[in-house]
Amino acid sequence: DAKTTQPPSMDCAEGRAANLPCNHSTISGNEYVYWYRQIHSQGPQYIIHGLKNNETNEMASLIITEDRKSSTLILPHATLRDTAVYYCIALPSGSARQLTFGSGTQLTVLP
Amino acid sequence: GAVVSQHPSRVICKSGTSVKIECRSLDFQATTMFWYRQFPKKSLMLMATSNEGSKATYEQGVEKDKFLINHASLTLSTLTVTSAHPEDSSFYICSARAAVGSYEQYFGPGTRLTVT
User: Fold this and answer.
1) Which residues contact A36 (CB under 8 A, 6 or more apart)?
2) Which of A9, A32, A34, A41 to mutate to test the interface with B (most CBs of B within 10 A)?
3) Are A18 and A10 in contact (CB under 8 A)?
4) What 3-state DSSP class applies to A103?
5) pLDDT of A96
6) Which residues contact A54 (CB under 8 A, 6 or more apart)?
7) Contact call for A98 and B95, based on CB within 8 A
8) Residue B22: what are its φ and ψ, rounded to 5°?
9) pLDDT of A22-60, one tens digit each?
10) Nearest Cβ partner of B43 from A43, A93, A104?
11) Rounded Cα–Cα distance for residues B105 and B100 (Å)
12) In percent, how much of chain A has pLDDT > 70?
């Protein structure tokens, strides 16, 4: 599975968009980009995933660059409850392999 | 989405005793379940993978005789920490994957174990 690199921490003002970057320069053609988040003392929560097209759901948007070497998770209107560690994971779709977590990005939404 | 529960959510036990943590998939059958451990301010580390009806596969460095995993049914897996020591204090999280045809992985809320 491709290695992903994320900044260790970011701050965002409440109500503003939070843009979380992820670098996955060695991603292969069949690997999807998955995003999970973990609020303190809870289990990880699935957010979104995509292959090469931009994706949007009720939680977030995922923007993947054309060369697929990086992506950005966008929380359009961050709230205090979005404060969490966000993990970007590259994994082949349909893979029987387990999710492997890196160190992620600690997003702190400030009032 | 699919729901995974864990019980208990918190447990305190004395050093030398054993403690069992249950992981249940509430609305789907899970052929594969995963157990992760997370120390404070650290990321999740996979401990073992268990498939229903077969022995668990442990990650390197995880003692199989200390962390007993049983996956006896398609909706229940248990992790027993035997002869617990203070260094076993951690946040234990289970995850379940639905039966063949779906590879989504769903996580439980975690169990906080404190060994005194």
Assistant:
1) A44, A45, A46, A47, A86, A87, A89, A99, A101
2) A41
3) yes
4) coil
5) 67
6) A61, A62, A63, A64
7) yes
8) -105, 145
9) 999 999 888 999 999 999 999 999 999 999 989 999 999
10) A104
11) 12
12) 96
